[in-house]
Amino acid sequence: MNASNASQSWVVVADDPAVTGLVEVARTVADEVVAVVVGARPVADTVAAGVDRVVWLGEPGAVPLEAFAPQVAELVAAARPVAVVGAATPAGRALLGAVAARTQAPVLGGVRTVSVADGRVVVTHAVMGGIAERTVALEGGPAVLAVEAGAVPAGGATAPVAEVAGAPLDAATVTQVRPKVRAGVDLGAASVVVGVGRGLKAEADLGLIRGLAAAVHGEVACSRPLAEGVEWLPKESYIGISGQHVAPDLYVAVAISGQLQHMVGVRDAKVIVAVNNDKNAPVFGQCDYGVVGDLYQVVPALTAALGGSDD
Amino acid sequence: MKIVVAYKWAPNPQDLEVRADGTVDEARGKPAVSEYDPVAFELARRLADETGGEVVGLTVGAAAIDTPLARKAALSRGLDRLVLVADDALAGADSTRLAAVLAAAVRAIGGVDLVLAGDSSVDVAEGQVPLTAAAQLGWLGLGRVTAVTPAAEGLSVERDTPAGVAVLAVRTPVVLAATADAVVPRVAGMKDILAAAKKPVEVLALAALDVPAPAVTLATLGTAKPSGGDRRAVLFDGSDPASAASQLVGALRSAGVL
Predict the structure, then answer these.
(1) Most CB atoms within 10 A, among A143, B219, B225, B238?
(2) Does the beta-carbon distance from A69 to B143 stay under 8 Å?
(3) Domain extents in chain B
(4) In angstroms, what CA-CA distances link A70 with A242, B4, B172, B241?
(5) Closest CA to B56 of B115, B127, B122
(6) What is the CATH number of domain A5-163?
(7) Which residue out of B218, B230, B232, B243 would a mutagenesis test of the A interface target, given it has the greatest number of A Cβ atoms within 10 Å?
């Protein structure tokens, strides 16, 4: 790519109007933020409340969002923005991957901070699944960034929405969508989250955890094995590298050993409390408060001390 | 149907040491077939057996990914043959570069209908490479795939999406990345391991592949150990659960958390 347009950054939106996280990053590096939206018209209209201009690729109908990725990449590449920001979700990454392939720029994930110094975009981001952080300055092409999506922009000023005829790959058709049986869990919005791990002996014992969560007005979450191994909780409930990333005011880790794959997902919690019967569990090196003890005794005691009752 | 399983030979970051300055010491890491990739091997084998197809393993990376152990670990998981691009020029390569090399190798293999990959790699854990590789190939790339079956024209694919399970009619060629629990991968037995030694392995030279040059250069300004370890870790003894609970609740109240 030739010299980029330093005054403009783009956000790529895959049918999810929760873009405040994307726009925030895009604004730190450029004055003007343009969104290209793949998805239904209401998504484009909602995104318009948070950006300066929206390019909408029309109703996707039965075409999967990913089929629009090459067109998104062409639009972005033609504008030569200084940064391209998308959501760190499978759909978001499909759009970012197309931008990366079109521009031969790396996709940087785990973004912590973004700034501009001496005309270069400088990004601090987590590497190797979050065990280390790296700060890099980019040259030669756009900063392509995968970030946490954030919230839906509030109404107010509305940017113009220009429709560009969609030109998706002719490769797939959605023939059916079977709604999920269980209601989605909105862990991202919870100010208190109680996570439970493999130390729980039986599914019936989840009642103890739910009791504690109720006493702190929190949501129940878990580590990966409880959602994908034994399936005691829905998949949306698991916290970790490839699961949910949450930043509640309080995270209570019950019978969770503290493996990196899980703890990366709660790194931004304000306060972390751990309950574990193994005093050498790594979680005690990563918490603010810990109780070394058996969850079957400590959790009911904690629930009682909080004024709740056992389920 | 010709299926490529794109997998990674990588260490688990849990076994790696992060130095105080944020650099990573990989000496203690024991590389293996990346945690979620066996799901892709299994999906590929089942699909190939149903359609009378071939399963080709493909991995790219630094020279160290090509060892007898690494070859056997992949070939014992239901592959018919293995293709490697092992070159130290790819040490520490980013997702775009790895995807570009994978795509070039898929083109070199030729006649590929489907590239299957796991959910994400154990070390980088971002799930970016298969989707970028699809774009490098000019193919459709779909993540979160929970099932793949042969269909009249191509494949029937099920995906876990925010709205529910989506069923798609997909024409090949296509790149699919499976969820970690799409299928339960079989465990390689002694027979598989012995048979692995006889299966063909082809090493492609990086220089012989048509790989686009990276456009962006990254200058590393610094590294750091993440601050997650700086929490205070005030511990209470739970051998008296009621006492520990009231101490903890008191501490959380005075910290303004409750």
Answers:
(1) A143
(2) no
(3) 2-208, 226-258
(4) 25, 22, 17, 58
(5) B115
(6) 3.40.50.620
(7) B218
Q: Stretch B166-192: mean pLDDT, rounded?
A: 94
Q: Which residues touch A165 (CB under 8 Å, ≥6 apart)?
A: A57, A58
Here the tokens at position B235 are 């511990």
Q: CATH homologous superfamily of domain B2-208? A: HUPs (3.40.50.620)
Mean pLDDT of A128-153: 90
Which tens digits make up the pLDDT trace of A115-140? 999 989 999 998 887 778 999 999 99
- At A217-258, the pLDDT tens digits run 999 999 988 988 788 998 889 998 778 889 999 999 999 988
Average pLDDT on A268-289 reads 92
Q: For residue A1, what are its two tokens?
A: 């790519």
| Neighbouring residues of A110: CB distance < 8 A, sequence distance ≥ 6 | A125, A126, A127, A130, B126
* Average pLDDT estimate for A256-266: 86
Domain segments of chain A as ranges: 5-163, 187-305
Kindly determine whether residue A64 and residue B142, on different chains, have CB atoms separated by under 8 Å.
yes
A75 SS3 class: helix
Residue A136: which of A152, A122, A156 has the closest Cα? A122
How far is the alpha carbon of A159 from chain B, nearest alpha carbon, in Å? 27
Cβ–Cβ gap A90/B127 under 8 Å: yes
Backbone phi and psi for residue A56, each to the nearest 5 degrees, phi listed first: -115, 130
- Chain B nearest-CA distance from A143, in A, is 9
Backbone φ and ψ for B245, nearest 5 degrees, come out as -65, -45
